[in-house]
Amino acid sequence: MSFLVDGLQYSNWSEAIFRQLRAGGVDAVHVTITYHETFRETVANIERWNRWFELFPELVFQGFTAEDIALARRTGRTAIFFGAQNPSCIEDDIGLVEVLHRLGLRFLQLTYNNQSLLAAGCYEAEDGGLTRMGREVVAEMNRVGMVVDMSHSGERSTLEAIAHSTRPVAVTHANPSDWHPALRNKSDRVIRALAESGGMLGFSLYPHHLKGGSACTLQDYAAMIARTAERYGIAMLGIGSDLCQDQPDSVVAWMRAGRWTKRVDYGEGSAEAPGFPAMPRWFRDARDFGALRDGLAAVGFAGGEIDAILGGNWERFFHTSFGVAVPEQKRAAQ
Amino acid sequence: MSFLVDGLQYSNWSEAIFRQLRAGGVDAVHVTITYHETFRETVANIERWNRWFELFPELVFQGFTAEDIALARRTGRTAIFFGAQNPSCIEDDIGLVEVLHRLGLRFLQLTYNNQSLLAAGCYEAEDGGLTRMGREVVAEMNRVGMVVDMSHSGERSTLEAIAHSTRPVAVTHANPSDWHPALRNKSDRVIRALAESGGMLGFSLYPHHLKGGSACTLQDYAAMIARTAERYGIAMLGIGSDLCQDQPDSVVAWMRAGRWTKRVDYGEGSAEAPGFPAMPRWFRDARDFGALRDGLAAVGFAGGEIDAILGGNWERFFHTSFGVAVPEQKRAAQ
């Protein structure tokens, strides 16, 4: 059985998008539920999700364990796994890690572009690595089974998180920086450290992470995946589409500026292009995973390899990542 | 297999008290984790419990389903089920019912002595019954599997909650008022409505609920239980000891006055006796359940009847109360 799993989406959710997930045969998605929100605000976002689960039980349900991916397939629905792109939701309180894990949070980025209480973001001039609290929180995340996600973190912080974490770390949505040198993409050193520790890299389809931006071709994208597979192996590779469907530009402004500045921060954009960029025409929503499959086949991937990249690897990673820590799990995964 | 289940405790928890639970063979306890606390403050209390579960895993663990009672017995531990004595923890936000249920909250009192957003407390001069929000919240509690607990509610509110709830309601800690006419004890009408709807009454051992207070004898207490069993049947009866061990008097002041008054409210106490009353000498902590068993035998209960009152009835009630609603569950329980 091959599963289709998307390692990151942040859409403006609606019945229409849920139906696209079903039309695309997506068994599971890691969705971002919070950026700069406090704990209480994050809980309000969870309440909104609970309402969607209650309203559309035939389309989506909340995933808590990797087994929920198979349950989704059996029942013709999509399992939704929660994640946070910034640690604002745990405030300054390590006890909230376990509380949010109980509420289903399965991924937590230690930073979103900026310095956080835990580590440095990829847009900071200085990266001092994991903070004192950062080391404690990574250990607590390891204990309860919450994935350390370093997609928006700085290089040193990322390498230190990989080294300090006793369980494999993920970069849920980014591409190799030697293909497209965006601050958000990842160096050979980071990707190699991820691969050597049993971690995961989810290839992004967000135009700012693509060579050529919105004009990037499917062939170029698939060839980039093929090169990455040759270099680091296939087992660590997945997709993290970073789909942000139907979001108004005010949302990308919130993602970038939160409450930390009164000025406009353009993040990966610019004054000329401040809003959400247009997706590549060959990947506009979840119904386009079939095109992605064709693109991977066209650059020479075998069927089993495509299955692994489009979901099998994430499914295996979920299995070893979401439960209570087992001693020496990281070693066994290598 | 007969289980020992206590339907309410609010002690100043410590390893010493957890060891008393084990020495007393208590398989499960419904513990109060919050009174007037906001949602965020309640979560901080849950964090404190999570710490205890992490520190003393060989003594206690959090119970989520009725099956955890048997797990507790098999593993020689006590399952701790969370409850709230006032709805402050859901603030004005019905979505917090499902969130708190996910965090393990299995009982919620609609009121604590005073008027709440949901209903009237037993100390209000006027009881207007369930409020608009109260009716909505009871329906939501019914949906997710959270027990409506009317221990501290007024008569009309209690009767309306029993009538409006589609699942059986509990009075986790109170005694019949015709035995001891305290405002917190329950009328024949309330107890009969509970019995007819498959609800539960947990007999309290808190001195203010006892005839003679701290001087109440075991024989008197057991005879009161026997009379109640004769009148309403045994199936609805359990114990809700209301043990508040090792609490300073400042805690009873918080329970009574919260943040709703700047004056002292003596609640069930008085200016002459403002603090926690002394427990009856035959029931000081969880190690005294054996004495209770002997007392029930002495007034003529058979072994199987004592098993039902000391835990079997709560265990059955937990089974039908904590899961997602099944249509017509209330009828089936009758």
Molecular structure report:
2 copies of one chain form a homodimer. The longest helix of chain A has 19 residues, at 303-321. Mean pLDDT of chain A is 96; it is low at 329-334. The two termini of chain A are 24 Å apart. Chain A has helices at 15-23, 39-55, 67-75, 95-102, 132-144, 155-164, 188-196, 218-232, 249-257, 289-298, 303-321, 329-333, and strands at 5-9, 28-34, 60-62, 78-84, 105-109, 147-149, 170-171, 200-203, 237-239. Chain A is built from 12 helices and 9 strands. Chain A is 40% helix and 12% strand. In chain A, strands 1, 2, 3, 4, 5 and 6 form a 6-stranded parallel sheet that branches. Chain A has a 3-stranded parallel sheet with strand order 7-8-9. Chain A has a single domain (5-333), classed as Alpha-Beta Barrel (TIM Barrel), CATH 3.20.20.140. Chain A is globular and about 45 Å long. In chain A, strand 7 (170-171), helix 7 and strand 8 (200-203) form a beta-alpha-beta unit. With 334 residues, the first copy, chain A, is an alpha/beta fold. The relative contact order of chain A is 0.15. Chains A and B meet through helix 2 and helix 4 of A and helix 2 and helix 4 of B.
Helix content of chain A: 25-40%
| Main sheet specs of chain A | 6 strands, parallel
CATH architecture of chain A: Alpha-Beta Barrel
CATH topology title of chain A = TIM Barrel
How many beta-strand elements of chain A?
A: 9
Strand content of chain A: 5-15%
CA radius of gyration of chain A is: 18 Å
Helix/strand order of chain A, N-terminal first: EHEHEHEHEHEHEHEHEHHHH
